[in-house]
Amino acid sequence: MVKNYKKRVLILGGYGNFGARIARMLSSESDVQLIIAGHDRLKAELCASKLPGIAEGLRLERDSVNLSSQLKTLHLDLLIHCAGPFQQQQDYRVAQACIQSGTPYIDIADARRYVCDFQRLSPAAETAGIAMVSGASSLPALSSAVLAEIQRELPTIHSVDIAIAPAHRIVRGLATVRSGFEALGQSFPLLQNGEWRESYAGNYLRGVKLAHPVGERWLCDFDVPDLELCPRELPHLHSARFATGLQPRTLQTGLAVCARLARMHLPTANQRVARLGHKLAAHWPGGSRHGGMLVRADGLDQRGNAGSFQWQILGLNGDGPWIPAAPAAALARKFLRDDWTFSGAQACWQLLTVDEILAELAPYSIVTAMERLESPAPMVPAPVSNP
C-alpha cells in the first residue's frame, strides 16, 4: 500500500486580503494540503471550505506564548506568514517559533526594518537547517526581480525609482490601512545623489504617469525595504526613491495633510482614525479599478553609454491585489518542488525571476511592458524634511 503524503503548508493570516489569494494560487498543487490559520477560526474554516482539494481552517494566534509547540504538533513543511502589520513585529516572534519548531518560513512583509534586519536570524536558521525568507511580495521580491532583468541591458545602475499606484475600487484590509496611517509623518533615510537624506512618509506629493488606463497618479514618499536593499546590493547606486498613494487625488492630498499633522505631533495614527480612513477609502466616489507598479532605473549600458529603462505592471479590472500575492506563491512552489534548497534567513532579493512571478498571474487581467527611454532624466533630489 502506497502512502499518499501531502506536504502541509500553513498560511498564517490565510483568510486576509493577500493570504487568501496565496491560498487560492497554491490550491492548484495536488500534493499540498493547505491549512488556513488566524485568530478567527470561523473565518479560517470558511476560507478553507472555498478552496479546491484538501484544506482545513484552525485558530492560531501569532502572539501565542506556545506558538513553537503548536507548530511542532502540526508537522508543517512550510509556513507562510501573512498576518501583518509587520511594523509591529520587530521581535520576529513567528519566525523565531519556526526556528524552534524546524519549520521553513516565508513572509510577505514590506516593513523596512523587519525585512532588512531579517538576516540576523540566519545563524539560528542555519543551525535548525531551515530556509527563511522575508519580503516575498511586490517589495522587494518583484522589484528586485525586475532590476535583475534591467541589469541585463543596464549592468551599472545609478538610480532606481519605484512607484506603486493601487486601484481605488478594490477591497483593502484594515491592517494594511492601519499600518499606512501609523507610518505617516515618520522619518526615514533615503539615498539621493550619493548622500543619505531624510524624508518622511507622506512627503513630496508629486504626479507619476503610468500607462493607460491607469494614467497619472499622485503619490508620496514612503519607507520600504528597497530604499536600503538597493544601495546594499547595487554598488554603483547614487539614488533610490519609492512612492505610493491613493486614488482619487483628494484622498492622497488628505494623507499628505495627515502626514504634516503627524509631524506636528497631532494624533493621526490611532485605531479609530485608521478605521475612519478605511471606510472613507472604501466609499469615496471616483477612482477606478485599475492600478499599477513602475520600476525605473538609470545607469550605463554594456558600452558605457547612459541609458534608462522603465518596467510597468498593470492590474486591470480589480485584479491588482493578486500582484503582491504572487511572489509568495511562486517562492512556496519552488520550495515545495525542491527547486529552492538553502538554509539561513534572508530578504527576498532576486530569489525569483519576473517570469516565475508572472506565471502565477496568468489567469488574471495583468499586463506588463519594458521600454528603453530615449531621454534619461535625472531624479529630483529629495527635499530635506522639516522637524
From TrEMBL:
Classification via InterPro entries: NAD(P)-bd_dom_sf (IPR036291), Sacchrp_dh_NADP-bd (IPR005097)
Pfam families: Sacchrp_dh_NADP
Domain Saccharopine dehydrogenase NADP binding, first and last residues per copy: 9-130
UniProt superkingdom: Bacteria
PANTHER family tied to this protein: CARBOXYNORSPERMIDINE SYNTHASE (PTHR43796)
Protein name, as recorded: Saccharopine dehydrogenase NADP binding domain-containing protein
Organism: Microbulbifer marinus
